[in-house]
Amino acid sequence: MATQGKVSGIVANMVVVKTEGAVSQNEICHVKDGDVSLMAEVIKVIGDEAYIQVFDSTRGLRVGAAVEFAGHMLEVTLAPGMLSRSYDGLQNDLEKMDGIFIERGSTTEPIDFTAEWDFTPLAKSGDRVVAGWWLGEVPEINITHKIMLPFTMEGNYTVKSIAAKGRYKVTDTIAVVTDAQGTDHNITMVQKWPVKKAVKAYTEKPRPSKVMETGVRAIDTFNPITEGGTGFIPGPFGAGKTVLQHAISKQADADVIMVVACGERANEVVEIFAEFPHLVDPHTGHKLMERTIIICNTSNMPVAAREASVYTGMAISEYYRAMGLKVLVLADSTSRWAQALREMSNRLEELPGQDAFPMDLSAIISNFYSRAGLVTLPGGSTGSVTFLGTVSPAGGNLKEPVTESTKKAARCFYALSQARADSKRYPAIDPLDSYSKYLEYPEVQEYLDRTIESGWVDKVMSGKTLVQRGKEAAEQINILGDDGVPVEYHERFWKSELLDAVILQQDAFDNIDAYTGFERQKYMYNMILDICGRRFEFDGFESCSSFFKELINLFKQMNYTEFDSPAFHDYRGRIEAKIS
Amino acid sequence: MTTAFQRVYTKIDNITKATVTLRASGVGNDELATVGGRLAQVVKISGAEVTLQVFAGTEGIATNDEVIFHGEPPTLRVSDALAGRFFNAYGEPIEGGPKPDGEARQIGGPTVNPFRRLQPSELIATGIAGIDLNNTIVTGQKIPFFADPDQPYNQVMATVALRAQADKIILGGMGLTNDDYLYFKNVFENAGALDRIVSFVNTTENPPVERLLVPDMALTAAEYFAVDKGQKVLVLLTDMTLYADALAIVSNRMDQIPSKDSMPGSLYSDLSKIYEKAVQLPNGGSITIIAVTTLSGGDITHAIPDNTGYITEGQLFLRSDSDTGRVIVDPFRSLSRLKQLVIGQKTRADHPQVMNAAVRLYADAAGAKSKLENGFDLSDYDERTLRFARDYSEKLLAIDVNVAIDEMLDEAWRLFALYFSPAETAIKQELIDKHWPGTPTAAGTPAAI
């Protein structure tokens, strides 16, 4: 019999419940308000009073309302059929909800329990298996969805029997396994997992070594992120965080894209709903929506569910990683999640830390980022969760607690600069402040040597030096005036402008320029480095600037043409004629 | 408003500046009540103790005053009869006349399911090039003016309201001076547009906490016209900074720990509940929100404009241009995030590149200007950008210019040709071929240089 309780106090979405029995921290409960059932989570217990945060509006709720405790923490349902769906922060399928408005207490099934799947067994009776072991597989859209021994099953098991190839519902038993004590367990295609716990069904978590292509030159060429890596994008509003994240979600070389819209604008999610079913994944040619899962808690949806949404997204991603897939998680924005933590900490009357955020904010963020990573699975293959979060620093000030805490946890830092955004240099990733720690990894350097060209990291560093020297030259010119410095200063400045305009700036709204594959990135970058390595003779700063302006114009036109097309080579020819 | 089921209490235990606490039973969260004749709302229930926030303040409330619970949260009676009327924050008429009848709807209702939203795709022309050309506004968008208190933002709002092609315009006035209230009233009346305008007004003469009801009242009316009637509704909210100030007052009196700039920690959620009501609906109806957030000393890092910027789809800045003496929409700091959905698609194909080129050349002019101020010689190019900037500001950016978008584009091409070579504009060649004045395929005046 589940523990029961009665509402004894209400402040906004925090409710105090007088309980009649045992409750546990983070346990899920349901508050009955008339015929509506509101889901909530225990966040503090004092004596027989449980403090719960309700994932919904508490308007009209009265003292004395019945509360039923569920006996488990917040869980996700994991089974085939999650790809291309859109969930709220609690894994309700938004598409299945009736009406224009989300009514209080509405819930929908996260998966289709009536659908049948083409099951092929992978394990055979007598196999020794552990949690996360692949027992069989079903095709889910374009991926092979592995049916695994549930993550919650600790210890060793022996397969007693396995279902034959055929069509099954997710709730049908597809295997029977025996534990060390000789007890049999029926395994279906559906399992549940508490979202706030990291899935640990892997044997090893090695350092990431492969670079993940995003098609964004300022990232791939200058500060690459790895499969299983972590990164974050802080930037003031208007600096283009969302446009950049959308670009990555469209182009990244991943099997599954998890988009967590966390406390951001609804219209941004609508853009994904509207575009992804039609856009094509540049790597596979399939429709983008087919590899995407959206977790959507927009800014006007209940705050408590916002906190849950990032965990829901991560837990589902870990599930797909355990199938040996490359998963990319994009969360926009983790600041909204931190704010949800702050609101609740405030209502609990906890002593606040900096900017009224909870004291353990930094620990919570580090813990969350640590769930990303490359893992070796029990069967020997690998899977990865790459995590890229945006941060919306208050007032654009990078010294605020969420940015600082995230900086400690993430390995790539893509600082969006207001100055670049103001001068419409998009993506506004600051080339000098941003970094990728992965460039320092010997295994990443080796990977780049092998896949792009030998000595690539040195070339990247020389490009960064060019930008740095260009910036210094620009400062000198500003102080001393155009005539007050040698022409070489102008040349140095314009070389950095050339690199900026052709490599770092990219038009996310142009069909061709938006996505640049590694091959083209290498081609263009080498062309630019070659020009920047030459010495030109100019008779004055004006001829220098007009020379480079024309050059930039030719390169920009070249960026708009298809790679290796006649038009592309035509521009290349014109550029070569110009510089010779 | 009274019904037979209302519960009446006559013993108040605690009174603070903004709240009263009493023992009562069967009270729902967020429920309305009348305390000594003033409206109040339940904000906290702890066992039998109920705390009420009294909107008009508690001055003169006695411990034996009558407390009547209404049994429901604040509501607005919605019907077509709302049109043409002026209401206070409680939805009561303020210009005389009967209270309109209609279905009572709870204000601050549920969220639209994001999956049911449509992508905004219809542009709202205002005739102001600083908006239509550079920062095009789309139905279902939410965008504020970030303005200094001395700028003519209410006049610009009124202009936008009258020019925009909307079925209904809902004005939510918070802390308006009486003069501004009368200004809006006169402008709407003189334009003969009153039948499509509904106003909810809290003036500085009313208690500040009452303002908290104004946006929800205005948006409940907007949802009625957009969802039930499929109309294009434009909601004007002015001034959201005064709304946020009222939030801070309440939070302070409720002993909540303030976060940045003494604002409540929930400011982001509080503001987004309002702004996210902007929506494009599948039935063709839409709610577009244009708001005003006044800045103190132009500081956009203050918590109110900062949080607003993260919620809204862009922002518009007004600036007075010292070179031309006109008020312009600042092309550098202003941004409409949804313009990408319409420009070059619902407008001419050259729109995006023309817009970017003009802003970039205007930025070069700003660079030239600072060079001039620092006493450096100007190059020929610098001189040309300065002349361009002057024309651009006067013929396009000034808020009193009123032309159609195609004319704005033609004007921009004329200015490009007047001062620059095609390469200097860095516009795609095929567009240059088509639109550059003086080339064989383009109509218009021949190039001057």
Secondary structure: elements and pairs:
The complex is a heterodimer of chains A (580) and B (449).
Chain A: E1 4-11, E2 14-20, E3 27-33, E4 36-46, E5 49-54, E6 66-73, E7 75-78, E8 86-87, E9 116-121, E10 128-129, E11 134-140, E12 143-148, E13 157-162, E14 166-169, E15 175-179, E16 184-187, E17 191-194, E18 211-212, H1 217-222, E19 225-226, E20 230-234, H2 241-251, E21 256-262, H3 266-275, E22 292-297, H4 303-321, E23 326-332, H5 334-347, H6 361-369, E24 373-376, E25 382-391, H7 401-409, E26 412-413, H8 418-422, E27 435-436, H9 442-451, H10 456-480, H11 487-504, H12 518-533, H13 541-559, H14 566-579
Parallel strand pairs in A: 8-22, 20-25, 20-26, 21-22, 21-23, 23-25
Antiparallel strand pairs in A: 1-2, 1-6, 2-5, 3-4, 3-6, 4-5, 7-17, 9-11, 9-14, 10-13, 11-12, 13-15, 15-16, 18-19, 24-25, 26-27
Chain B: E1 7-9, E2 12-15, E3 19-23, E4 32-35, E5 38-46, E6 49-54, E7 67-69, E8 75-78, E9 86-87, E10 103-106, E11 123-124, H1 129-132, E12 137-138, E13 142-147, H2 153-163, E14 168-176, H3 178-190, E15 197-203, H4 214-228, E16 232-238, H5 240-253, H6 267-275, E17 279-280, E18 286-294, H7 303-311, E19 314-321, E20 326-329, E21 335-336, H8 351-373, H9 380-397, H10 405-419, H11 422-425, H12 429-435
Helix pairs in contact in B: 2-3, 6-7, 8-9, 8-10, 9-10
**Computed Rg of chain B:** 25 Å
Strand content of chain A: 15-25%
Overall tally of domains of chain A: 4
Overall 3D geometry of chain B? elongated
Helix count from the secondary structure assignment of chain B: 12
Reported by name, the CATH topology of the largest domain in chain A is: Rossmann fold
* Global structural class of chain B: alpha/beta
Distance N to C terminus of chain A:
85 Å
Largest interface by Cβ-Cβ < 8 Å: A-B, 70 and 82 residues
Q: Tell me the name of the CATH homologous superfamily of the largest domain in chain A.
A: P-loop containing nucleotide triphosphate hydrolases
State the end-to-end CA separation of chain B: 74 Å
Q: On the 0-100 scale, what is the average pLDDT of chain B? A: 90
Specify Rg of chain A, calculated over alpha carbons.
Answer: 27 Å
Summed up, the domain count of chain B is 3
Please count the beta strands of chain A (DSSP E, at least 2 residues each): 27
Q: Roughly what fraction of the amino acids of chain B lie in strands?
A: 15-25%
Runs of chain A in which pLDDT lies below 50 for 5 or more consecutive residues are: none
Which secondary-structure class do the elements of chain A indicate?
A: alpha+beta
User: Taking all residues together, what is the mean pLDDT of chain A?
Assistant: 94
Helix content of chain A: 25-40%
Count, helices of chain A: 14
